[in-house]
Amino acid sequence: MARRDDDRVVSQPRAMVPDQGAALLALYPDALPQVYGYFLRRCGVAATAEDLTAETFLAAVDAVNEGKVPAISVAWLVGVARHKLVDHWRRQAREERRLAAVAQQPQSSDDPWDAVLDEARAREVLERLGAHHRVALTLRYVDDLSVRDVAAHLDRTVHATEALLVRARAAFRQVYDERGDDGD
Fold this sequence. Notes:
The protein is mainly α. It contains seven helices and two strands, in the order ββααααααα. It folds into two domains: 2-102, RNA polymerase sigma factor, region 2, helix turn helix motif (Rna Polymerase Sigma Factor, Chain: A, Orthogonal Bundle), CATH 1.10.1740; 106-183, Arc Repressor Mutant, subunit A, CATH 1.10.10.
């Protein structure tokens, strides 16, 4: 920062600060196939590799905007990608543990559905449900939150949340049973 005679702070011209955004943009065509290839080799699923590649470049843009980048390079981007891949594996492991918990959770007296859930099918069913049902069921049965806590997370009353959970369980059962009758 420079000072004027009247002691007001004046910022220096932007030309003195290296434009890392432009450097990232210039590096993008060369880095994109390398970052995508990094993910594809490790996870083997093109859609996942695409999603993680997008997350990596978004994180890179955020880091550039926050001024947290020492030097823009493909190696730096692969380092960001490595962190994104670890985050992905952690999310996946958490989701698998949560789905396993839903499948193994003992039936409560207020929900007498006594079928044993298949984990893979439960995941498919959750993906087919509407987002409001999926989030309510996940918070209640996967994250094991009380109805009051689910209500707080969803910014609803306890009564409205109980009603939502009843509808979500019914929707889950319907889709789960339809799926079981069709192809299994």
